[in-house]
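Structure in, sequence out. Go:
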């Protein structure tokens, strides 16, 4: 497939181009249609799968699917109990939703890019990126959603007055001379949380996508190159399973940590 492109850069650029649509008059705002559509479909698949399993759950000997879901729910619930000590009953469902959704979005990286490009081409779609978490807009949206929940949890736990007060009295103390330093420190901390939360996931998945593309270019060098490309892609795909799960786990754990931090009193 890579042989049909004039250069490696053209091959990579083609596969890294989003299907975008302008918002309004086509000015600054653009929507990455492929990211939005794929994310929504995977979200419905993940939630639909969990809903279907819970509807068919039995109190007797569970099926393999039910046992798998129970293990996943129990694992996430144990992580929440070990970190979050507040009263909200929503933290565990949020963490489970984030974990399942991010795993599914990360796993789209396993789809062979050239074969998928050919399939999309049959429908007249020439630019379609299948990995939502390789789009920084997706990871920032997720991270900012968690950040907003952290603020909401903080205000709910401490009240608007207590939460505002902490911006000026923590972490160095409540002396008026320390208020500017406390506020600056809090702003830096607030900014760093969604940045690190989003860019960690995006960077790892985007790098994995690039490596798959680089390995795919070997197929343009004949039969031997195709064989090497297949072997190397298989090896990287096996290793990438760890990255897909690990990055989803880290994103989920940071979600729990940030929500717990939102309710901490200084």
């Amino acid at each position: 497939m890579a042989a049909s492109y004039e250069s490696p850069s053209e091959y990579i650029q083609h596969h890294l181009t989003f299907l975008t649509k302008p918002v309004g008059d086509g000015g600054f705002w653009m929507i990455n249609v492929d990211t939005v559509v794929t994310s929504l479909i995977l979200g419905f698949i993940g939630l639909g799968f969990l809903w279907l399993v819970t509807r068919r759950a039995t109190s007797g000997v569970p099926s393999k699917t039910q046992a798998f879901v129970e293990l996943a729910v129990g694992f996430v619930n144990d992580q929440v109990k070990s970190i979050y000590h507040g009263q909200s009953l929503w933290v565990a469902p949020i963490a489970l939703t984030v974990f399942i959704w991010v795993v599914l979005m990360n796993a789209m990286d396993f789809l062979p890019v050239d074969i998928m490009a050919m399939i999309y081409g049959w429908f007249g779609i020439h630019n379609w990126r299948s990995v939502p978490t390789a789009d920084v807009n997706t990871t920032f949206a997720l991270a900012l959603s968690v950040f907003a929940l952290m603020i909401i949890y903080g205000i709910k736990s401490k009240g608007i007055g207590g939460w505002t007060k902490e911006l000026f009295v923590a972490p160095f103390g409540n002396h008026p001379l320390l208020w500017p330093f406390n506020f600056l420190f809090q702003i830096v901390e607030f900014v760093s949380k969604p940045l690190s939360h989003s860019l960690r996931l995006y960077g790892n998945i985007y790098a994995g996508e690039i490596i798959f593309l680089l390995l795919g270019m070997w197929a343009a060098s004949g039969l031997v190159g195709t064989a090497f490309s297949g072997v190397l892609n298989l090896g990287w795909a096996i290793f990438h399973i760890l990255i897909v799960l690990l990055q989803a786990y880290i994103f989920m754990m940071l979600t729990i940590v940030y929500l717990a931090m939102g309710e901490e009193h200084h």
